Amino acid sequence: MLAENLLVGQRIERQGLGLHARPIKLARFVREFIEEHRIILPDENISLQLNCPEDTAALADPDALRVILENLTDNALKYGGDNPHLTYALSLVDSHALVSVSDTGIGFAPGQAELIFDAYQRLTSEEPKGKHGTGMGLHLSRQLAGKMGGSLNASSEGEGKGASFIISLKVAR
Q1: Where does residue 69 rank: exposed (0-12), middle (13-18), buried (19+ CB within 10 A)?
Q2: Which residue among 38, 47, 104, 172 is buried most deeply as judged by most CB within 10 Å?
Q3: What value does the mean pLDDT of the chain take?
Q4: Where do the domains of the chain lie, and which CATH numbers do they carry?
């Protein structure tokens, strides 16, 4: 993930990153993503909540969406404590499909939500033992979401209360 984030960051800054958004069936995409990552997180620590029709499609670049989900999952595992639990949830709000990734980790003060998207920003000076990063994952993920015509936002009820990240994408018509 470290190398991929650095390469994507360079491509965005130097030449712009051409994304190819197309209709993607979100439920299938997220299920496949979860299955690909079962090796790093046991079944009992992942849940998927589907609060939208199974065939809901959103406009997204599959590679960019995968990078965003990988960054969110990596952060949830990195800051999730000894037994992290992740919830992936899909829903519809107006003309947007929402994909949220929530964790049971260290969270952050509500007023710090925007700071975590700054390049090289970490809210805690303590890096989890043996788990290093560039501080670019969330920054790049937000840029990728924006280039697909969507957004990426974060929220937490406070330190020690986990965090939620919501990717908003336009519904494909």
Answers
A1: buried
A2: 104
A3: 84
A4: 2-147 (3.30.565.10)
